[in-house]
Write a structure and sequence with these properties.
This protein is mostly beta strands. It has one domain (about 1-85). Helices cover about 10% and strands about 40% of the residues. It has a 6-stranded antiparallel beta barrel with strand order 1-2-3-4-6-7. A hairpin with a 5-residue loop joins β2 and β3 (about 25). The radius of gyration is 15 Å and the shape is elongated. About 15% of the residues are buried. Bound molecules: zinc ion. Zinc ion binds near residues 31 and 33.
Length: about 90
């Protein structure tokens, strides 16, 4: 899995998640308002076959911080994987 953040200035930076927290840390960007380098994630949506996108807000001051993307290793694509995980009835033929 690969995390990245596209900040409001349009630049993309590496990001990291520590443990199972809902906070993503950026390695080369700090909030211009409060200098925090952690962001909180909103609801994820599927952007492409292997990428989720989530709105991000600063963990320090709550300012919008752009978008976080999570690229995952998927065999069949995220929509198919989620369908399997959610147990949708499927027909193979
Ligand atoms: Zn901030």
């Amino acid at each position: 899995m690969t995390w990245s953040i596209t900040t409001p200035d349009g630049k993309t930076h590496e990001a990291k998640r520590w443990g199972e927290t809902a906070i993503i840390y950026t390695t080369s960007w700090n909030c211009p308002a409060c200098n925090t380098n952690g962001v909180r994630l909103g609801a994820r949506t599927i952007e492409s076959r292997d990428t989720y996108v989530m709105p991000a807000v600063c963990d320090g001051c709550g300012e919008p911080s752009g978008e976080v993307r999570l690229k995952v290793d998927t065999l069949f694509g995220l929509e198919e994987d989620e369908a399997v995980l959610l147990g949708r009835a499927r027909v193979y033929g």
